[in-house]
């Protein structure tokens, strides 16, 4: 803006100087006699400095409006005829012309000159403004960045501290701001209060899990001890029953240990996925157990679409927990279909292992579908079937730890399809 304003003022000032010379030239040519003209020209030369490349033009206009010579730019001449005065610049040459009348004859009187000094001044001004802009921009960037860093530094420190807080170090707290007032101080206090509540909740959870696990382990230990002792002196009549009791008690013990590990780890999947598990073998084992615990169940197993390579069916996880999750899903299908045929199919789709469980049971009402993963929630049409609303939410959480996806498609009175998608780590 400054440059264009200066350029406009410089150009107008130069036009003013040319206009003065044009008027002086006209008066010297037409209104002064020869003797006075020489004096006038001498004074003009002495007191009016000659401009660079200055030229005078005095062109007579004929009666029919034609010029005797065509030494001036056509646009300038046209403008002089129209306004009796014109300013024009072409290729760095400035022109000022007037329409002058003397003794009933019309003349065009014009002066042209260049302005190298003004041009150099404008170039210098442009250079100065450009460097000033660059320096100002750099300084603004540096200063703005410094102020920005100073402003966001407390927030950055707070974010870094929050990111380092996990289930294992809930005792950490954010540092209160120095002045202890303002939005940042309030935010730090709010975070600290939230961490206090989380730490208390985790302590209550861990204490409950530890106590519950201890209480459950006590009878299990007694059962395992008695069965192992009885098996040392086997009786042909009860050895089979004792073996079943021992096997199921051991499995229950593993489940309790897995749940304890899951709760105490804060659902940290990196510490859970330790075992290499064949999904097909796990499903077969679960179905064998269901035949013992629920002999009325009718399950049709479909392995017709299994891949040729066994590695394609292998995932990483914790076997007792995964067994519990899949067992809950299949058991629910049997229970809520009143032990009608339940189809269990294992196959690959889009690079994932899919376990599909289908039943033709009571289904789930549409309004209940969005709540089925909530603890203690049971569908409104469960009837008198026993349950506590823990199996499916627990399966959902266990599968989530194993980076698996659980999807349920159901229609009331028509049945339910449950899809479990596992990531294949070996394919």
From TrEMBL:
Catalytic activity: ATP + protein L-histidine = ADP + protein N-phospho-L-histidine
Keywords for the protein's UniProt record, in alphabetical order: ATP-binding, Cell membrane, Kinase, Membrane, Nucleotide-binding, Phosphoprotein, Transferase, Transmembrane, Transmembrane helix, Two-component regulatory system
Main localization (coarse): membrane
Residues covered by the HAMP domain: 149-203
Residues spanning the membrane: 128-147
Pfam families named among the record's database cross-references: HAMP, HATPase_c, HisKA
Superkingdom classification of source: Bacteria
InterPro entries: HAMP_dom, HATPase_C_sf, HATPase_dom, His_kinase_dom, HisK_dim/P_dom, HisK_dim/P_sf, HssS/ArlS-like, Sig_transdc_His_kin-like_C
Class of this enzyme: transferase
EC code: 2.7.13.3
CDD domains in the record: HAMP (cd06225), HATPase (cd00075), HisKA (cd00082)
UniProt membrane topology term: Multi-pass membrane protein
Compartments where found: Cell membrane
GO molecular function, one term: kinase activity
Domain Histidine kinase: 211-426
PANTHER family xrefs: SENSOR HISTIDINE KINASE CPXA (PTHR45528:SF1)
Name assigned to this protein: histidine kinase
Organism name: Pedobacter alpinus
